[in-house]
Design goal:
The protein is of the alpha/beta class. It contains 17 helices and 32 strands. Bound molecules: 2-acetamido-2-deoxy-beta-D-glucopyranose (NAG) (12 copies). Residues 343, 345, 366-367 line the site of one 2-acetamido-2-deoxy-beta-D-glucopyranose. It catalyses: L-seryl-[protein] + ATP = O-phospho-L-seryl-[protein] + ADP + H(+); L-threonyl-[protein] + ATP = O-phospho-L-threonyl-[protein] + ADP + H(+).
């Protein structure tokens, strides 16, 4: 099969001869090998880390700078994105050699051992992400000298020992996420020097000592979350009431003593939790910020009366004062400024106090829950209508939720994992979603329901998507409280995301490029699951590389019919190879299809890619005048991804390709039809008779497939260049169309229309002819793209 052969030869000629200069820095290669060596990778995700060069051959989840460094001429590792790969083992000290790395992501694996101090040598490091492992040991003080560190996420490990004082040097660090470890000792007062810190999440550790009043000097602090530590003997520093930037103060179960904090001077405070301590004295009566949603003073030893300042807070969702010694009367108008439309509700928990009377009769709106059991007021017989509030109430938790999509829309077609886009402007349209497991680490509210629409707006716009493209499929509260969600992201008005968009969205999440929101707080990425885009598309369809190859081949040779047959063959073969890799050789000579000389090829290809190719003198076995080529261009340019993004974007090239498609569709002789053919097909299409011009040989394919193929050809042939799809879109659509072709597993490939005189057996003996070059052992061109891209060079076996 000439065209595909050309491509294959081109591509692998390139891969086999990389230019010596364009390689990854050798010490970084060694470091990656060492990192791989000290990890255990039961699922083999890192198998590609044995092959070729990390940056040139595209090792899995190793992201390199896209250009070589000016100072040393090497490629360098920019990111390790090893999120959720089931890795165990330890982190190799050689990590420190990746000194230009910006993102080190080992989140949600089962890695043990400690964080190597050599990480302190990665001076360009911006995101240090190792949360959700089983790391132990203490925090190396070397990390404190990383000048570019923006975010340190070590949460959900079992890291012990103190927070090093050296962390006070992290001038650029905004996020300390260290919750759920075994950190001990005092919070170093030196941390008050951190000029950029916004989120300090140290909850669920074993921190002790006094709470440093100095933290009030942090100029940008938004969240202090220290729940479940043990600061016994310490009180809440009054200076915390002076942190005017603060949005959330959470000090639950910290063994704190002394008076309740006066936070009335914090203008935007939205969330205050000082429950489960031993606070004494009265609750300060200053007016709290109107932003406040959650006030929790429960389980302390507070006395005095309930301040009138709790009444009239317009955003309040929960006021928990239970299990104290509060006396006086039950406030009767806490809800007076709350607008209960839009699913709002309010919980007032005053249980187990010493409240003795009502100031006024209680006549709350339906969405207010008042809990009074365990107060003397419940015993007094003369209080009307109070009994309903005096039943001992179970703990009230905010609800979760999920979208029931079952009845809203008719099911989508099942040939792709399509799902209904429930909020699409075109209702019930279908798309293949990306799935994201996502968790709000420190939300600024108690009940999510009233904020759901706002969240949708926040996250979709943060991702530069239309709001309808994001669906919060389920949400549920977890300990913390944290809010876990599953999200679906849908493509905009199309069935599929293109690969660039998938990558962009992944990067928005894994690079923490979505701006934080005051009300929703920091997020955790638990999983980014491309679903079909990663697994399905490579298993079930041709790889990008193969398709690009085919498109190029089709384009270069315009040997139209044979291309389609090749595609179908490849597809069938690919399905078979996944089962058995001992494929037979396939005869590729196709009856009635013209062979092309190099001149014909270059004439008909608009100088497309062949301009970079040089015809060689005939190589062994090829007939005179036929094409054998090697790559003359710069290394890298035949990289399939590069083609997709750079080379194949010229929409005027797309026109010629569209003509080829239409020729294929109609079964006309290749080349030379140009606009007449296009006009003919357009006319047939407009009169709804598209099938009337379709070649009978296409009849084996499903009608929808043929129609989409026709539509694609026509779009490519639009007069206005801008109306034509990009080459990347063409490739995607081709891929989608091949997906729709019937699964022909088990059908002998010989049944495809091709030269009936060549059986596999007889063709395999052919040698020395041009025919021989048209054939190669398909079993080596596995379709799982990763092989094409990872530097394993399938051998071409001309016969
Ligand atoms: C390389 O990456 C930088 C950003 O890191 C980007 O601005 C630039 O366009 C990229 N260059 C190429 C050739 O992709
Ligand atoms: C960090 O690099 C310096 C040299 O750049 C070297 O002297 C030092 O030993 C390295 N430290 C670690 C912990 O690898
Ligand atoms: C975490 O480490 C501490 C000691 O550092 C140990 O007491 C504790 O059992 C460990 N917890 C887990 C869950 O492994
Ligand atoms: C951090 O900033 C302070 C004040 O700007 C400066 O004195 C200090 O040297 C900086 N520290 C580092 C490690 O850059
Ligand atoms: C953090 O630790 C607390 C207390 O052990 C536990 O209840 C909570 O589930 C943990 N949270 C996470 C996210 O691991
Ligand atoms: C917590 O810290 C205290 C000292 O403050 C220590 O005695 C205790 O063993 C630590 N507990 C754990 C589980 O690390
Ligand atoms: C809070 O700030 C004011 C003015 O900035 C200052 O007078 C007061 O002493 C501070 N209070 C505390 C407890 O630090
Ligand atoms: C609020 O009250 C209305 C009317 O009783 C009810 O339909 C709605 O479910 C309530 N909402 C919440 C969140 O409790
Ligand atoms: C509804 O959602 C489920 C789970 O996310 C999915 O499997 C199903 O295909 C969806 N149904 C429709 C009609 O989109
Ligand atoms: C979605 O597609 C429409 C056209 O179909 C376009 O106008 C709009 O800008 C796109 N929106 C986004 C966020 O890409
Ligand atoms: C706080 O309230 C102001 C208006 O008073 C509003 O602009 C801001 O968004 C609110 N912040 C939060 C976190 O709700
Ligand atoms: C690298 O390979 C992966 C799959 O192995 C693929 O998803 C990705 O697009 C490739 N990247 C480049 C730049 O070739």
């Amino acid at each position: 099969m000439l065209p595909f052969y050309i491509f294959t030869l081109l591509y692998f000629a390139h891969v086999q001869q990389p230019t010596a200069a364009q390689i990854t820095a050798p010490w970084e290669v060694n470091a990656l090998r060492a990192i791989r060596g000290s990890l255990s990778d039961p699922n083999g995700f890192l198998n590609s880390w044995n092959r070729g060069d990390p940056c040139v051959a595209n090792w899995t989840r190793v992201i390199c700078y896209n250009v070589t460094a000016k100072d040393d001429g090497y490629f360098h590792v920019q990111e390790l994105q090893l999120l959720r790969l089931g890795l165990s083992g330890t982190l190799a000290p050689e990590l420190g050699q990746l000194s230009r790395m910006k993102i080190m992501d080992f989140m949600w694996n089962k890695i043990t051992g400690s964080i190597p101090k050599e990480v302190g040598n990665i001076t360009s490091l911006e995101l240090l992400l190792v949360n959700g492992n089983q790391l132990t040991g203490s925090l190396p003080e070397e990390i404190g000298f990383l000048p570019n560190l923006n975010r340190i996420q070590i949460d959900q490990n079992n890291i012990s020992g103190p927070i090093p004082k050296s962390f006070a040097n992290l001038n650029k660090t905004k996020h300390f996420h260290m919750n759920n470890n075994s950190l001990s000792g005092q919070i170093p007062p030196e941390l008050s020097r951190l000029p950029s810190l916004v989120h300090m999440l140290l909850d669920n550790n074993n921190l002790s000592g006094y709470l440093p009043p100095e933290l009030a000097q942090l100029p940008k602090l938004l969240i202090i979350q220290l729940d479940n530590n043990n600061f016994s003997g310490s009180s809440i520093p009054p200076s915390y009431g002076n942190i005017t930037t603060l949005l959330k103060l959470s000090l639950r179960n910290c063994s704190l003593e002394g008076p309740a904090p006066d936070v009335s001077g914090i203008p935007q405070l939205g969330y205050l939790d000082v429950s489960w301590n031993q606070l004494t004295g009265p609750i300060p009566s200053g007016q709290l910020a109107s932003n406040i949603t959650t006030i929790d003073f429960s389980h302390n030893r507070l006395n005095g009366s309930i301040p009138a300042s709790f009444s009239g807070l317009p955003n309040l969702q929960r006021l928990s004062l239970d299990n104290n010694n509060l006396d006086g009367s039950v406030p009767s108008d806490v809800w007076r400024n709350i607008d209960f439309s839009g699913n709002r509700s309010l919980i007032l928990d005053f249980q187990n106090n010493a409240l003795t009377n009502l100031s006024n009769p209680l006549t709350p709106p339906a969405n207010v829950t008042i809990m009074l059991s365990g107060n003397p007021v419940c015993q007094s017989q003369n209080q009307l209508n109070i009994a309903q509030y005096c039943q001992s109430a179970p703990e009230v938790n905010p609800g979760g939720g999920s979208i029931d999509n079952s009845t809203l829309c008719a099911p989508c077609a099942t040939d792709l994992p399509l799902e209904s886009v429930l909020k699409a402007p075109n209702p019930c349209s279908c798309g293949v979603p990306l799935y994201v497991d996502y968790r709000l680490k420190s939300p600024g509210f108690w009940d999510f329901v009233p904020y759901e629409a706002q969240f949708q707006e926040y996250l979709s716009s943060g991702l530069f998507l239309n709001s309808y493209q994001l669906e919060v499929t389920t949400f549920m509260w977890e300990e913390g409280p944290r809010l876990k969600m599953t999200l679906k992201l849908f493509p905009n008005n199309t069935i599929l995301f293109n690969s660039g968009e998938v990558q962009r969205l992944r990067y928005m999440f894994t690079g923490w490029l979505i701006a934080d929101s005051d009300i929703f707080g920091p997020y955790e990425l638990i999983n980014f699951d491309p679903g079909w885009y990663e697994k399905g598309s490579t298993k079930k369809s041709l790889s990008t590389g193969a398709i690009v190859g085919i498109v190029i081949a089709a384009f270069a040779a315009a040997a139209v019919l044979s291309s389609l047959i090749t595609l179908i063959l490849l597809r069938r073969r690919s399905r078979q190879f996944s089962k058995k890799r001992t494929a037979k050789r396939i005869p590729m000579k196709i009856d009635g299809v013209k062979d092309f000389t190099f001149e014909e090829l270059s004439n008909c290809t608009n100088d497309f890619s062949l301009s970079r190719l040089a015809p060689l003198p005939d190589t062994e076995g090829s007939a005179p005048g036929h094409v054998s080529t090697v790559v003359k261009g710069t290394p890298g340019y035949l990289d399939p991804e590069y083609f997709l993004t750079h080379k194949l974007t010229d929409k005027s090239d797309v026109y010629s390709l569209g003509v080829v498609f239409l020729e294929l569709l109609t079964g006309m002789q290749p080349i030379s039809h140009g606009k007449n053919l296009v006009r003919e097909v357009v006319a047939a299409n407009q009169s709804g008779m598209i099938l009337s011009v379709v070649d009978l040989r296409m009849g084996a394919l499903p009608g929808e497939c043929v129609e989409r193929f026709a539509a694609l050809g026509l779009r490519c042939c639009r007069d206005e260049t801008d109306a034509r799809p990009s080459m990347a879109e063409v490739v995607r659509e081709l891929e989608a169309i091949w997906q729709m072709t019937p699964d022909t597993d088990g059908v002998p490939s010989e049944s495809v229309a091709m030269d009936p005189t060549h059986t596999p057996a007889s063709s395999s003996t052919a040698t020395g002819s041009r025919m021989g070059h048209d054939q190669y052992d398909m079993s080596t061109s596995d379709v799982s793209g990763s092989n094409l891209l990872s530097g394993v060079v399938p051998s071409i076996n001309p016969r």
